[in-house]
Amino acid sequence: MSSLRKFLPTLRRRDSAEDATSTIPEDQVDVKREKSVGDSDSEDLSTDPATAGDPELNPGGLSLAEDAAGGMGRHLGVFDCTLLIVGRIIGTGIFSTPSSILGSVGSVGASLMLWVLGFVLSFCGLFIWLEFGTMFPRSGGEKVYLEAVYKKPRYLVTVIFAANAIILGFTAAGCIVMPDSILKAAGHTADRWVTRGIALGGKSIIGFVTILHGLTPRLGVWVMNGLSIFKIVILVFVVVTGWAVLAGNTPVKDPHANFRNAFAGSSHSGNDYATAMFKVLNAYAGWSNVNYVLNNVKNPVRTLKIAGPLGLAICAILYLLANIAYFAAATKEEITKSGTTVASLFFHNVFGAKAQKALTVFVALRSLLTIVTCTFAAARVNQELAKEGIPLPFGNKFWASNWPTGKSPLPGLVIHLIPSIIVIIGPPPSVAYPFILDVEGYPGQIINFFIVIGLFWLRYTKPNVPRPFKVWWPVAVFFLAAAVFLLVAPFLHPANGVGDTPPLPYYLYCLVGIAILAVGVLYWALWRVVPRWFGYEFVPNKEKLSDGTVVTVFSAKKID
């Protein structure tokens, strides 16, 4: 307990307070940072490139040197970062969502077009995030970019983003898909509580992953890289098998059937396409994974510009080829009815029932092991939020720390586990997976919308700020237009009046997503507005923890 006590909050009352008083000499922070960065980091990272050009753009209350202090320093190279992206993108989506996407849009041709559009939109988003990430090469991703643009009301965008990141920061999707795959391989059908039991058993493995990253961070990176390579091998196997199917070298009778009149039966509802696109984009989610951990990346500007496009390109090509393989091996009706086990159906049709069982287990494990890369990045986002002083239970100093090793944010990893368990226990598994994808996607698109608007605003108000990478503006306009469509179309009435998660209303996931962001607004008001009604305010003060981490701590001050 004594090791924990130093992270617990203390409430101070001050008669006078500065806007942000630091108790840490700047030279001490720089020395700590230089030691953690090492000689291999040749970039000048005393401050953000954009902040060096205009100090007013500094995101949040910490400088780059303060934000990067503590932990393991910069130890991830181009290879690690590429696999960090690949390992995050190749998740449950490509093995599970093709069936629900096909069911939404009604035809193979429309489904493939959405996967191509998702590939294009993901690259557009990647280039926008590259501009922001090279301007502000620090951990946190969207949190940092929103803070740099939307300064007032102070801390509002930070808390709204925190609500989305923490409440929706679960990794339950893989745990929900895993039981379906395992039971399918065993030839059993289980009720929802058996499925939940297996999923919660998966969470115990995720608990092990949390300990792995929290207590042995270097081993965690090696394991993460190895598993990412394993997932690439599995997907390449699917693609190569698909080529064999198309060549007529398998028991599949007519592998070209789905590609004749490929657009027959296509939906004419904008709602159907928007809902399906959320699932496609969720399957591509992960291209911004390195942006969340830039404090741990060597030469972050150069590395980000290489690893981002390379990682996404690898996944996009494999995704398109894997979808073609699925459509070659099964009929449209079989795929639509397969639910979250489309990969299992593929193996059954090509290799038979016995081989299906073995191969499906590999897919189930791959779905679960996706959590390794998710938790690595999400924990660092949670840590950045705690560093900023967002009030959390037991005090933000503990959650911002690298306790207990001083190298990895175990408390941030714990935050990541809690919502995952809640989601698994809550809704029925048959509804949970597609609904989770939809709910995750909608508030994410709202955040994307404001980030692109912020990009154009900075281009207009700060045209001379250094930008190591500059996205072509038509690319940003296209991404913005897509974001607007994805925000409006889900409210359009579907052709049959039913969404993809019956009996839930088709628009429910949008309302849930908006409500989550509204929780952030309410939390901000309780923290920043309500205390003023009683004559108090909270003022920031920087403190340095024993592990070297710099954190903003708020203390109460009576308003004169």
Would you kindly provide a brief summary of this structure?
It is a multi-pass membrane protein. This protein has 25 helices and 4 strands.
Descriptive overview:
There is one protein chain. The protein has helices spanning about 1-5, 25-35, 50-55, 65-70, 80-90, 95, 100-105, 110-135, 140-150, 155-165, 170-185, 190-215, 215-245, 270-285, 300-330, 330-335, 340-350, 355-370, 370-385, 395-400, 410-425, 430-460, 475-490, 510-530, 530-535, and strands at about 15, 20, 535-545, 550-560. It is about 65% helix and about 5% strand. It has one domain (about 10-485, about 495-560): Up-down Bundle (Amino acid/polyamine transporter I), CATH 1.20.1740. The chain is globular and about 80 Å long. Helix 5 packs across helix 13. By secondary structure, the chain is mainly α. It contains 25 helices and four strands. The protein has a four-stranded mixed beta sheet with strand order 1-4-3-2. It is a multi-pass membrane protein. This is High affinity methionine permease. Keywords: Membrane, Transmembrane, Transmembrane helix. InterPro entries: AA/rel_permease1 (IPR002293), AminoAcid_Transporter (IPR050598).
